[in-house]
Write the structure tokens for this entry.
Amino acid sequence: MKHRFRFGHATHPDWRAAADLVLAQLSGGSAGARGDATLGIVYASAAFSADLEGLVRELGRRSGVTAWTGAIGHGICATGAEYAGEPALAVMLVDLPRDGFRFFSGRQRLPGLDQPVEAGGVRAHTALVHADPALPELGDLVADISSRTSTGFLFGGIAEGAPLEATQVAGEVFAGGLSGVAFSRDVRLLSRVTQGCAPIGTEHVVSECTEHYLLELDGRPALDVLLADLGVPVQARTTRDGNEILRSLPGDRLRQGLFVGFSDGDAGRGVGFGDYTVRNVVGIDPHQRLLAIAGTPRAGDRAVFCTRDQQAARRDLTRICTELRSEVEEEDLQIRGALYHSCVARGEQLFGDNGAEMALIRHYLGDVPLIGFHANGEIARDRIYAHTGVLTVFV
């Protein structure tokens, strides 16, 4: 019988004391004696960055686990708990076949699918990824790692970066770059993405665009389409006065910001916003009638304007937890452990109360071992998301 993974989490200003508290929880777990686990996952807040190497060494010495991966996060989360703005630590000890995973980083690259794997090596099937926010061409690097796995599926998040001394762990501790752990096909994972979006109007097709600018949707000026979707008065839709346009916008509805979701025009439609990459609308040009986007749209993409609010976020998070739980129960599986990578702009800011996001997961997914961190961007499949939660379970 497969056991659930052991995990622990704690907050304390001293990393040694935090480690003591976590290790006490790990030793009281039900996954067997010391040494059963083969991989440790550690997420810590920025307060522990300077001591990350010593922290990992201490965790390894006292747990008996020699292989570690992890990252420094903006905030730390665990089953039923969120730590924001305080020094915190979360650890999970994962019991996998020793030939079921391999580390990768700038120093130890994953072989491509067309390249041979060294004797005793692991062919990457999926991968947990941590990245530095300042890494040039990060989107391309994530896509490259995805292409080196047989499923193309990645999950993880963008960690804290400079000026912190150490931010990532992948067999060793270092700062910067992109790293993580790849899993073989023998390690089964299930995953879902939640974006907590509520659509504004209907879906459109990108007719004309340039880098970071939406010029036309459905053959009409992009700004005109947006204002129509928002239902602003006709007079405000035609004015070239930017201030008048801004005054006409529904402020309460856009309190959490205005976004646009893009999806490949050739791709099938998924449930919710899972197949969309949602980006901020960062500006308007009332004269050229275009929109500035914190992303790069492509002609032919499907596009839908959307907002984020607490109700939509709760509803969509409930959906992904329910889907995962149903899939597990239908196949008579057991959730051994879970990882959650959530945007720094979610948590209390979106759900209203500290711990509300994690409480929802606990309620609808179940009381399962879970750790994670609040990221500067979330990684799922072959792309980088924003304002998103990526929930992944080991079964």
Q: What stands out?
A: The CA atoms of residues 170 and 316 lie 32 Å apart. Residues 6-189+327-394 form one domain.
